[in-house]
Design brief:
single chain; alpha/beta; 2 domains; 3-stranded mixed β-sheet
């Protein structure tokens, strides 16, 4: 019953007369602008512009800051099992190697994560490392590896996650204004440009040269007939990456795991799509800068704030603060995170690499593969 009531509220303007729809969106737009302006004043950063304030303490998915380094690498090996044999083997080897563990333990805990070490080694070596190459890198260029890990972040930008977001976006009143927090290079801001194949159900995007994202639908997925209409889009990231900068693209490539050739091809095609019309990704913090960015969204649009694999990198108190902020802004909030990350909603833990798609922090719409390979819609959502 709750989902039916939401559907009626969401879609009545589309069925109303053109004049009624216009009046509705004008009232909604004016109210939203006033609300966002008030919130932005209350949460204004100490300095002008985006990105002058950032969060410090961070915890991350797949990397328990309370666990030992070796324990985290053994856990990562389990996550890599069946996806990247090379990284599964390397993670287990690191867990038992005193030299590498000593190097890692000299870093602050948040910088010891396997994804970051392996990507930084790949960045410096030009190819994924094995244990021998990693040990030599630490001996010969340890300072350089340390500097790379301190200055870089894990910013995996998987465009296939758009396939798990698309049905939820298509259900909303159009057109949309999209804000992605933790946007990296902005590749998941381009949901309308990609095409999709849901086990034979094809959805054509607006860019005929963009990749086709394949996703297996499970359960009563409300597969759309067309991509959503996006009137405006912007991203926010502590360290935004530029799709037109070769060095940033190289870092994105280094974050991929060896053996996942389909992801490499997909990333390359998505980058070329983004380069044809690059999305704007601003440097900023999700707590202090989201309200100001929301104020730029045009009236007459449905404001959607979304993220994938981002809140897990934020401390638990800050997650609750972000949830409060998004609700105050009156935006539709779509979170695509591991179970348990979004506060105040009970979700099932379904093994490694599984995300839960939640609307407004209260309604679990679907479970999804972390890289967009499948989407399992929940009955009644």
């Amino acid at each position: 019953m709750k989902s039916l009531q939401w559907a009626k509220c969401a879609f009545w303007p589309a069925r109303a007369s053109p004049n009624a729809r216009l009046a509705h969106w004008r009232r909604a737009g004016a109210a939203r602008i006033a609300r966002i302006a008030r919130i932005a004043r209350l949460r204004r950063p100490a300095a002008d512009g985006f990105g002058r304030v950032s969060l410090d303490g961070m915890s991350m998915s797949g990397h328990d800051l309370e666990a030992g380094t070796a324990e985290n690498y053994r856990a990562f090996a389990g996550e890599a099992r069946g996806r990247s044999p090379q990284y599964e083997e390397l993670a287990m080897a690191v867990a038992g190697n005193p030299q590498v563990l000593e190097f890692l333990n000299a870093l602050r805990p948040a910088k010891r994560q396997p994804n970051l070490l392996f990507a930084a080694a790949c960045y410096l070596l030009g190819e994924p490392a094995d244990l021998a190459a990693l040990g030599k890198l630490i001996r010969d260029r340890g300072d350089e590896l340390t500097a790379t890990m301190r200055s870089r972040r894990t910013q995996t930008n998987e465009p296939a996650r758009c396939a798990t977001l698309l049905p939820a976006l298509a259900l909303l009143p159009q057109p949309l204004a999209l804000i992605e927090v933790g946007a990296s290079a902005g590749l998941t801001l381009l949901a309308d440009r990609y095409s999709y194949d849901y086990s034979g159900h094809r959805v054509t995007g607006t860019d005929p040269l963009a990749p086709v994202l394949a996703c297996e639908p499970r359960g009563p997925v409300p597969l759309p007939a067309r991509v959503p209409e996006v009137a405006w889009r912007a991203g926010l990231d502590l360290n935004p990456l530029d799709v037109t900068a070769d060095d940033d693209v190289r870092w994105l490539t280094c974050l991929l795991w060896p053996g996942e050739h389909d992801r490499r091809e997909r990333l390359g095609a998505a980058i070329e799509t983004a380069r044809r019309d690059p999305p704007k990704v601003y440097r900023g913090d999700l707590l202090t800068d989201t309200a100001a960015l929301a104020g730029q969204a045009p009236p007459g649009t449905t404001l959607v704030i979304f993220h994938s694999a981002v809140l897990a990198y934020v401390g638990v108190p800050q997650r609750a603060q972000f949830a409060t902020l998004v609700r105050e802004l009156g935006a539709v909030w779509l979170s695509n995170e591991a179970p348990g990350v979004v506060p105040d909603i009970a979700t099932e833990h379904r093994g490694e690499g599984k995300f839960v798609l939640i609307r407004d922090g209260t309604q679990a719409l679907a479970y999804a593969d972390g890289h967009g390979a499948w989407l399992e819609w929940q009955s009644g959502s």
